[in-house]
Amino acid sequence: MIPGVLTVAGSDSGGGAGIQADLKTMLALGVHGMSVITAVTAQNSLGVQGAWELPVDAVRAQYRSVVDDIGVQAIKTGMLASAELVEAVAELIGGTDAPTVVDPVGVSKHGDSLLAASALDSVRTKLLPVATVATPNLDEVAQLTGVHVESEDDLRRAAAAVLAYGPRWVVVKGGHLSGDAVDLLTDGSEEHWLRAPRHDNRHTHGTGCTLASAIASQLAKGQPVPEAVAAAKEYVTGAIAAGFALGGGIGPVDHGWALRGCEP
């Protein structure tokens, strides 16, 4: 039986991030991807030109439709836009017996806001406590906790600040630091430092969505969290290396690189 993974996130019309990136990642990693669309964006390589969140009832109906009939082996959340959506999704996840990867999406690759300021407290108090793994980048860590990471030494402090809100594990993504691309995975007692060479490629749209979906895919296949995150990091590193130009701005990572036998 092919494991099923449910992504609860926004649609990216340009195909590089959001629901589209999630489903491509799941296909590449051998799981069945399913979706709950929380928002529709008008988006391309240059940025986000518009965003429209779906009604809470529509999000809840999509979720129940999938979970009640098909079931899920893992869940991934992305863009949730408003406090109402965050709280509704957190309640749904809390009633579902499946590991959940929370990507606390705050801003797009281009700096466009994808989360209302009024929703931050709901992310902290409702969504993070139901997360098996939270995957904030450095901007999202600062947004959620006030901790600003300037060097690798700050990653532990950032991780502790996120863990204080209740996720079982956190991956603090240090991709915005100089040097190697280093992430810290910890549950507060054990640490895993994940390093990869930094590829000289500006086409990195969708990296956060892709990493979170890859972790969820590996969890659905039964891997423990440290192994799932390490495998996801390897997949994303290859996708970044193979990223390609699309349009006039920042192109996407290549979700299909491994299917073509490419080397990371």
Automatic annotation (TrEMBL):
It holds the Pfam family Phos_pyr_kin. This is Bifunctional hydroxymethylpyrimidine kinase/phosphomethylpyrimidine kinase. SUPFAM superfamilies: Ribokinase-like. InterPro entries: HMP/HMP-P_kinase_dom (IPR004399), PM/HMP-P_kinase-1 (IPR013749), Ribokinase-like (IPR029056). Keywords: ATP-binding, Kinase, Nucleotide-binding, Thiamine biosynthesis, Transferase. GO terms for biological process: thiamine biosynthetic process; thiamine diphosphate biosynthetic process. Catalyzes the phosphorylation of hydroxymethylpyrimidine phosphate (HMP-P) to HMP-PP, and of HMP to HMP-P. The keyword Repeat does not apply. GO terms for molecular function: ATP binding; hydroxymethylpyrimidine kinase activity; phosphomethylpyrimidine kinase activity. Gene3D superfamilies: 3.40.1190.20. Residues 12-254 form the Pyridoxamine kinase/Phosphomethylpyrimidine kinase domain. The keyword Cell inner membrane does not apply. It is an enzyme of class 2 (transferase). NCBIfam families: HMP-P_kinase (TIGR00097). GO terms for cellular component: cytosol. Its EC number is 2.7.1.49, 2.7.4.7. It comes from the Bacteria. Pathway: Cofactor biosynthesis; thiamine diphosphate biosynthesis; 4-amino-2-methyl-5-diphosphomethylpyrimidine from 5-amino-1-(5-phospho-D-ribosyl)imidazole: step 3/3. It catalyses: 4-amino-5-hydroxymethyl-2-methylpyrimidine + ATP = 4-amino-2-methyl-5-(phosphooxymethyl)pyrimidine + ADP + H(+); 4-amino-2-methyl-5-(phosphooxymethyl)pyrimidine + ATP = 4-amino-2-methyl-5-(diphosphooxymethyl)pyrimidine + ADP. It comes from Streptomyces ferrugineus.
